[in-house]
Amino acid sequence: MNKFGLSNVVTEKANVELVDIANGVKVLFNGDIDVQNPEPIFVPFFEQIHANMIAQNVKYVELDFSKLTFLNSSGIKTLIKWITKVTPLPADQKYNFKIIANSQITWQETSLKMLSMLAPGLIEIEVK
Amino acid sequence: MKLFKNVKNGFIEMIFGPRWTYIATVRSFLQNFLSITLADNKWADVISMSASELLENAVKYASEEGTKISVEHNKDENRLYLTVENFSTPENCKTLKDEIDRIQKGDPQEIYLQKMQEAALRTDGGSQLGLARIRYESSASIGAEVEGDLVRVIVIFDLK
Q1: What global pTM score does this model have?
Q2: How far is A23 from chain B (nearest CA, A)?
């Protein structure tokens, strides 16, 4: 179990897991996120991570998409909702994201790059 | 859907009911079909993603059963035509045409960023990101035609 005590989110075709890393936490995305309405599935999970990041003063989260083969635009929206919660926070509550993309999966570099533009200075991208 | 002769270009046409579960199947089939037709996995990925986004819209906003998708690779022009047809209401057709107009007129990256900012505030379950995503990720040209309650979205990918 991770430091926030959160369970994985598992759908028919995807698995999203939160794990501890030395300087924060990492969210591992696996499979395909292509459900019609992913908000009730993923938004509560991301909101719990967000609340715990602030409450436990954790300053770094990695979003590892390297094993996510498909993400529809409704799924992208759930990430947008999370990221845009961080930008208006006061400086002492803000935390940083690192997005890990897989160069072998065509959509990742372009789609994930755009997420970083929503929160300039808070999101770094690594393409493997 | 009529059978025709003298097929020179890579071509596929499918009609299916507006069932969400078929979209992943169609996307996967198209990805394989396009990998063979275009011999380019990158374009196959981008176009199958685009088809998936259009089909999601077709299923979400259709007024009746039935969605048709066709793909044609015009080798002479080095272009690929992706067309999705479904039945819809006049209100949804107007919204779609306005949306395409906005996306086609603006800078693809700027419009996509604006749409992402708007999506953050939406509470209706929709994202309204699909068309802007297609335009941003492929630089394709997007158009729509309406005939009665039939709406046809045509995306043209310049493969040069």
Answers
A1: 0.93
A2: 28
